[in-house]
Amino acid sequence: MKNIGFLSFGHWSDTAHSETRSAKDFLHQSIDLAVAAEELGVDGAYFRVHHFARQAGSPFPLLSAIGARTSKIEIGTGVIDMRYENPLYMAEDAGAADLISSGRLQLGISRGSPEQVIDGWRYFGFAPADGETDADMARQHAEVFLKVIEGDGFAQPNPRPMFANPPGLLRVEPHSPGLRERIWWGSGSNATGVWAAKLGMNLQSSTLKDDETGEPLHVQQRKQIEAYREAWKEAGHEREPRVSVSRSIFALTNDLDRAYFGRDRNSQDQVGMIDENTRAIFGRSYAAEPDELVRQLKEDEAIEAADTLLLTIPNQLGVEYNAHVLESILTHVAPELGWR
C-alpha cells in the first residue's frame, strides 16, 4: 500500500494553450483540484515553491484555503526553499495552516535549487555569514524552524505586557502539536538524506538528484533511501519515518492522453549540470497504456522502496484533465501494483 498524492509545479502563463492564465487562476484551480482529488481518494495535495517566477511563491495562504475546503487529504509542499525563510515567521504560518487543516500539513523544506534571479534570497534580507554558503544558511534556517515548532518557550516575556502571559518563557504562537513529525527534507544527495535522518525529518526524493554513481535515477534513489533509513535507525528515533519519491506518470487511456503525452513513451533519464559545479540526473517520464505502464513501474526500485508517491501534474491543462490523470492512475495502475 502507498500514499499517492499529486505535486503541482504551479505554473501559469497567459498563452493560448494554457488553462491557467494568471496567479488567480492557479490559486483557485489548485483549491478545486485538491477538493476533486480528495473525492477521488487521492491522499495528498503538494505544491512546489519558487520565487520571482510565475509559479507558487507563498504557500501558506493556499495550504490554509485547501485545509478549510477539505477534510481528509494531506496538504504539503515539495519544497520550500529555506534560504528565503524567516524561520520564526514561517513557524507562525505553518502552525496556523496546520491547525486550520486539523493536523494534515506535510511540509517539505530544502536548501532550494537554482532560482530565477541571482542570489534571490538577498532581496528577502538574508545572506550567508562569512565563510558559509547559501546551503549552510538554508540548513541553519531549517534547524531553527525545527526547534521553534517543538513548542518549548525561549523568549523572555515583558514584565509589563499588554496582555497577561502564561508563566515562564514564551514560544511562537500558534503552536500546532505534532507538526514537528510532519516535516520533510527535500534531499538531492545521499549526504543530505543522512543529515535529514539525524534531525528526524521525513525524506522527499524528487525527479532530480545529484548524479553520484552514474546509475539510473531510480537505483540511485533506492540507495539514497537505504542510507537514509540506516541513519534514522542509528539516530534512535522512536517513530517510523516516511519517504516519498515524485514521478511524472501518465496512463494513456484515450486519444487526448496520447496527444498530450504519447511522445513520452520512450522517455529516458537525462544528465545535465544544474549549476556550474553540480552534475545532476533528471528522472524519466512514464507514459504508456495501463498494462505496459504497470510493467515499467514494477522495475522502478525507488518507487518500491518509498511509502509515498507524488505524481507530478501538468497543472496548466486544467482541473478537469488533471482529475482525469489522477483517476486513471488510481483506477488502472495502482490496484495492479498493490498500491491500493
What does this structure look like?
It is a single chain. The protein has 340 residues and is α/β, with parallel strands linked by helices. It has a single domain, classed as Luciferase-like domain (TIM Barrel). It contains ten helices and twelve strands. The strands form two sheets. Strands 1-2-3-4-5-6-8-12 form an eight-stranded parallel beta barrel, surrounded by seven helices. Helix 2 links the parallel strand 2 and strand 3. The longest helix is centred in the middle third of the chain and has 19 residues. The protein is globular, with a radius of gyration of 20 Å. The model has no long low-confidence stretch (mean pLDDT 96).
Characteristics:
eight-stranded parallel β-barrel, three-stranded antiparallel beta sheet, 340 residues
